[in-house]
Specification:
Elements lengths: L1 H20 L4 H12 L9 H5 L1 H17 L4 H14 L2 H18 L3 H11 L4 H13 L8 H27 L6 H32 L4 H22 L7 H15 L1 H28 L3 H29 L7 H10 L5 H6 L2 H4 L5 H30 L7 H11 L7 E4 L5 E14 L11 E12 L9 E7 L5 H4 E4 L3
Antiparallel strand pairs: 1-2, 1-5, 2-3, 3-4
Helix pairs in contact: 1-2, 1-13, 2-13, 4-8, 4-12, 4-13, 5-9, 6-7, 6-14, 7-9, 7-18, 8-9, 8-18, 9-10, 10-11, 10-12, 11-12, 11-13, 12-13, 14-15, 14-18, 15-18
């Protein structure tokens, strides 16, 4: 297994670098590497690695969903809440309807089997969509109308809705006495319970982190551990009550961000570094699950079913955005953002075959083919349209975020030690400001320009509350002196 892990790291990083040089999403290269080194082509992956592939992919997905939670601001969600809920159901229903319309004729299956296939195809891939949306949010793209936030939230709810429908259709095929209304009622129950089981531990983690000033890596590891337990809890409670644990994972980050932006930001930055490795695991191992021989069996008929399903889905997505402040270009971006399929299809595509569905082999083949066709095309479309369509304010708060990261500045409430005097100071105020700088020598226009800066005020703890002196500094891209004079202190 060690050799397989080395292949994932070396080849995955190489493919990521190559595709980014070609101005393409790096995840496409990782998927291709996974297909090539997987058991269905070159077979370089050890059986042990393939056996634990599901667990590795789940942990990697938890990392990116935690990052998503730490980026979900309540004000942004309030602006797009209605559209998020509608987009989590309507496009999937349209796609399932489109597949049911054409699959019986093109693939020689029953309408119920077509419904099972449609419910598999209708799930958008959070593994593909969420990282790209977070990248836009990090850079402030689409921030004015909160478009990436809406797509991120809707794609997560979409999976919950579709998987419940898949369970209903599969139960109907097996002749189980399935109460459809109870099954559909499980959708809001699982969503609400998932959010609750995330908010509760998230709040306790926030209280813990405010009481004990632990080092950021320890905070991040604890958050990861709690998130993994939530996914285990879903499996334990599955027979009794549905719990959308992945929504709970996002809720952990959301509640910590609501209570303490500084703590949330620190943990998010550590998760961002962890994502570099988790991304390799996720996409290479997803690619390794793809059996291109099975996909080939789906043929042109399978590709046509996928294409028609996407047309119906696109219509449903566009209709879901009626009444929103988005223009037609922004609606087009949302349509394209809802194309990629990968994670869910790789996870449940083979279940109908194992359950004895007559068209199980065809369903698996089309599910695999949908990954090969839509994941690369959707990722490329999101990247290209996002750069051209999403708004980007010149004085965006995200420029401050980038500056704060680069200078490794502390947040309000953290303690620092002076490297000159050894005294302990506490950060009591932070502002994001724009400083007017004079024009550079030789500038023909002679105009000044604005540059982002972080203002920090320190208070000396040595004389107790209400006493002691304060110091104030502002840091810019040109002034990177913080590390020269200060070090951040942690309890553990």
């Amino acid at each position: 297994m060690a050799f397989s892990l080395a292949l994932i790291i070396i080849l995955g990083l190489g493919a990521d670098y190559l595709f980014k040089r070609l101005q393409l999403p790096g995840l496409i290269g990782m998927l291709i590497v996974g297909v090539l080194v997987g058991p269905y082509v070159l077979n370089f992956m050890s059986p042990e690695m393939m056996q634990v592939s599901g667990d590795f992919r789940k942990i990697a997905l938890i990392v990116i969903l935690l990052r998503a939670g730490f980026e979900l601001r309540r004000d942004a969600l309030n602006r797009v809440g209605r559209a998020t809920v509608i987009m989590s159901t309507v496009p999937a229903v349209f796609e399932i309807g489109g597949v049911m319309l054409v699959a019986p004729r093109l693939l020689n299956m029953t309408y119920l089997e077509a419904a099972i296939l449609g419910s598999i195809l209708a799930a958008v891939s959070p593994a593909v969509v969420v990282p790209l949306m977070i990248d836009f949010m990090d850079r402030g793209r689409g921030a004015k109308k909160a478009i990436p936030t809406m797509v991120l939230g809707a794609s997560s709810l979409d999976d919950v809705f579709v998987i419940v429908l898949f369970t209903v259709f599969l139960g109907m095929y097996g002749g189980e006495q399935t109460n459809i209304f109870m099954q559909l009622g499980a959708i809001p129950v699982s969503i609400v319970l998932g959010i609750i089981v995330g908010i509760i531990p998230g709040y306790f983690l926030y209280r813990l982190f405010t009481k004990y000033d632990w080092r950021p890596p320890k905070r991040t590891m604890l958050v990861m551990g709690v998130a993994i337990i939530l996914t285990w809890l879903e499996a334990v409670c599955e027979e009794y009550v549905p719990v959308a644990s992945l929504l709970g994972v996002m809720a952990i980050g959301f509640i910590i961000l609501e209570k303490s932006e500084s703590i949330a930001h620190i943990i998010s930055q550590k998760l961002k570094k962890l994502w570099i490795f988790a991304e390799l695991l996720l996409f290479v191992l997803v690619g390794a699950q793809v059996n291109i021989h099975v996909a080939w069996e789906a043929g042109l008929a399978g590709a046509l079913v996928i294409f028609i399903g996407l047309i119906f889905r696109s219509v449903g997505t566009y209709l879901s955005l009626i009444g929103t402040p988005f223009d037609w270009k922004e609606k087009l971006f949302c349509v394209v953002a809802y194309i990629p399929k990968a994670t869910v299809q790789a996870a449940i595509g083979a279940i109908p075959l194992a359950a004895g569905v007559a068209s199980g082999e065809v369903i698996l083949a089309v599910a695999v083919l949908s990954i090969l066709l839509t994941a690369p095309v959707g990722a490329i479309g999101i990247m290209i349209l996002g750069e051209r369509i999403l708004d980007y304010g010149e004085l965006s708060m995200y420029r401050f975020k980038e500056l704060r990261d680069k200078l490794a500045l502390p947040h309000v409430g953290e303690r620092v030690r002076s490297k000159v005097s050894g005294n302990i100071w506490k950060v009591i105020e932070q502002k994001e400001i724009w400083l007017e700088e004079p024009a550079a020598a030789g500038d023909s226009k002679g105009d000044s320009h604005l540059t982002p800066a972080i203002y920090l005020r320190y208070w000396s703890e040595s004389k107790g509350a209400g006493k002691g002196s304060t110091l104030s500094y502002h840091y810019t891209q040109k002034d990177q002196s913080f590390q020269d004079y200060w070090e951040i202190l942690y309890d553990w």
